[in-house]
Design goal:
Helix content: 40-55%
Largest sheet: 8 strands, parallel, barrel
Number of domains: 1
CATH class: Alpha Beta
Distance between the termini: 13 Å
Strand order of the largest sheet: 1-4-5-6-7-9-11-12
Bound molecules: 6-O-phosphono-beta-D-glucopyranose
Oligomer: single chain
């Protein structure tokens, strides 16, 4: 077997604006839904609970420290860095007619810094955040007005960065809205399924309109979607479990099906009918949806199981995705089951289904790190996790899957999305900050930093 990854394979890491930048009210930035998390919507208004640590207000202060961080990424040999643009830096309230120049200038500086080291930017238009203004004024993605505002934002950034950014993504983990409607579509958590699917429809139309705009504006540009690759296995080989697994996998694959094929798959007709959901879909929407993506990107952290056994299901409720644990797999400290082979299975499944190039844009292990007396951090557990997953990526490439690259999640420690905490660390680079917001924000290299550097330098040949 060939142990070397293809020469044009892109190696790097992925971050998101709201989890690294901080400076949440600088440069004319408006408040985003993420700035207010882990709080929520109270009586229709989004509010921050007084007294929270305000951990994202500063995050890792990437807004000011990015030159130092990009230099460290370059030292590891990154050829790609995935980040997102904070919509609220460009359109602070969301519904302005023209963009905020200071916000645009910030990303110019960031992309220029990356260019110094020949690091290719991979940019997500919306990573788990939207302007609070759009939530309060229009009800988030529940409203069609938000589609127009998003398209204006997408066109503004495509025009501005067309010569600097050629690789784009529309919405981060677009299928997560089913489980976290506030994070995904700016709706209250208690919204009905019908409301959530209507908002999702609007987001799918917006995604397709962004694809159209990208193809019009960015010469040689490529734009992909972004799915949470939530692969599910049947817990048993009982046909009822297998059927239920098929249905539950379709619940997330549905997003990819629309974004790749340009129309709703047939199975959703029955899905909506069984739930008494009638979507409002215009003729224009149907035409817009025909603008399909160029490649599939996805995150991969874990797999889970499905069963029709109610007792087993009860036990699983309370996990964010309500997945039933797999008895054959170990878990991380946060209960995420570790399944390297699942990545190979998922990649083959996505490639068989779509025949489009894949980009793994998130993968990694959130863990607590210990700083030794000499300042070093021996994170061999992280090395093991990433090594084992990359070996499976190599297998998938050998299987014939077309893969553009790999950006592991959080190459530098950052604020966690689900818990807004710091102690869940993913980085090769340690950041001195704790869950209460104490620390100097100083950066230091972990053991995994040198490991990843070697992996990139050897085009994967150093993997074991
Ligand atoms: C993905 C998100 O769900 O997983 C990231 O796109 C997130 O934003 C990552 O940070 C890991 O999740 P967490 O909750 O450990 O930060």
């Amino acid at each position: 077997m060939n142990t070397r990854f293809p020469d044009n394979f892109l190696w790097g890491g992925a971050v998101a604006a709201n989890q690294v930048e901080g400076a949440h009210q600088q440069g004319g930035k408006g408040l985003s839904t993420s700035d207010l998390q882990p709080n929520g919507i109270f009586g229709g208004r989004v509010e921050r609970v007084p007294g929270d640590a305000g951990i994202k207000d500063v995050a890792i202060d990437f807004y000011h420290r990015f030159p130092e961080d990009i230099k460290l990424f370059a030292e590891m040999g990154f050829t790609v860095l995935r980040t997102s643009i904070a919509w609220t830096r460009i359109f602070p309230q969301g519904d302005e007619q023209s963009p905020n120049e200071e916000g645009l200038a910030f990303y110019d500086r960031l992309f220029d810094e990356m260019a110094k080291y020949q690091i290719t930017p991979l940019v997500t238009l919306s990573h788990y955040e939207m302007p609070v203004g759009l939530v309060e004024q229009y009800g988030g993605w529940g409203s069609r007005t938000t589609i127009d505002c998003f398209e204006r934002y997408a066109r503004a950034v495509f025009s501005r960065y067309q010569h600097k950014v050629k690789h784009w993504l529309t919405f981060n983990e677009i299928n997560m809205s089913l489980h976290a409607p506030y994070t995904g579509v700016g709706l209250a958590e208690e919204s009905s399924e019908a409301e959530i699917y209507q908002a999702i429809h609007h987001q799918l139309v917006a995604s397709a309109r962004a694809v159209k705009a990208c193809h019009q504006i960015v010469k040689d540009g490529q734009i992909g979607n972004m799915l949470l690759g939530g692969l599910l296995y049947p817990l048993s080989c009982r046909p009822a479990d297998v059927m239920e697994t098929l249905q539950q996998n379709r619940e997330w694959l549905f997003f990819g099906d629309v974004q790749v094929r340009g129309y709703y798959p047939a199975y959703m007709r029955r899905f909506f009918a069984d739930r008494n959901i009638t979507l409002e879909v215009s003729e224009q929407d149907k035409q817009d949806l025909q603008h399909t993506i160029d490649y599939i990107s996805f995150s991969y952290y874990m797999t889970g199981c499905v069963t029709t056994n109610e007792e087993e299901n009860q036990k699983a409720r309370g996990n964010i995705l309500s997945m039933v644990p797999n008895p054959h797999l170990a878990s991380s400290d946060w209960g995420w089951q570790i399944d390297p082979e699942g990545l190979r299975i998922l990649m083959n499944m996505l490639y068989d289904r779509y025949q489009k190039p894949l980009f793994i844009v998130e993968n990694g292990l959130g863990a607590k790190d210990k700083v030794e007396a000499d300042g070093s951090i021996q994170d061999d557990y992280r090395i093991q996790y990433l090594n084992d997953h990359l070996v499976q990526v190599r297998e998938a490439i050998e299987d014939g899957v077309e893969v553009m690259g790999y950006t592991c999640w959080g190459p530098i420690d950052l604020v966690s999305a689900s818990k807004a905490e710091f102690s869940k660390r993913y980085g090769f680079i340690y950041v001195d900050r704790d869950d209460q917001g104490n620390g100097t924000l100083a950066r230091s290299r972990k053991q995994s930093f040198y490991w990843y550097q070697q992996v990139i330098r050897s085009h994967g040949e150093s993997l074991k």
